[in-house]
Amino acid sequence: MPLLTLVVEQYVQWRFGIVAAIGFVLVAIGLKAENATCASIGSILVVLPAIPAGA
Q1: Stated pTM of the model
Q2: If we measure between CA atoms, which residue out of 41, 46, 22 comes closest to residue 30?
């Protein structure tokens, strides 16, 4: 499982940048700690780079 997490995190960082990678880490930490606030902020950070600027 750690290898899968590393691969997904590297792909997210390559595709969407460091902000999405930080968001992915926050989601993982939030889910592990059962902290909805941390997971929610991480989810927002993962989605923001995928939204076009003109939308």
Answers
A1: 0.72
A2: 41
